[in-house]
């Protein structure tokens, strides 16, 4: 079971502003913070997300083929979170919409450091 996902950043304050907005659109805030990283979510709740400066001191880079999927409970929330990401320095990687025929509805974006995320829900 996943407890949290960590994404690298080269600018902690820029990431903080971006993820404060995205997490806020999902109804959660910061749950843990140090000088090295910030984690968003709820203690004991769904898996959290953290932005961190790499421990080895090297430059953070996005993983090729790596993506974090953020689950929400409605199509409206997919649009809200995707729009919030783009309004706070994210870049569009695929507008919200249905993907396939199985009820998967998602929008894709990258954070200011280039990490790829999506926000999704399952439509019945």
TrEMBL record:
The record's listing under InterPro entries reads: Glyas_Bleomycin-R_OHBP_Dase (IPR029068), Glyas_Fos-R_dOase_dom (IPR004360), VOC_core (IPR037523)
Highest taxon in the source lineage: Bacteria
Task: Recite the UniProt keywords alphabetically.
Answer: Dioxygenase, Lyase, Oxidoreductase
Q: Name one Pfam family in it.
A: Glyoxalase
PROSITE patterns (alphabetical)? VOC (PS51819)
Residue ranges occupied by any VOC domain in the UniProt entry: 1-122
The molecular function terms of the Gene Ontology recorded here are: dioxygenase activity; lyase activity
Q: What is the designated name of this protein?
A: Catechol 2,3-dioxygenase-like lactoylglutathione lyase family enzyme
Organism whose genome encodes this protein:
Sphingomicrobium lutaoense
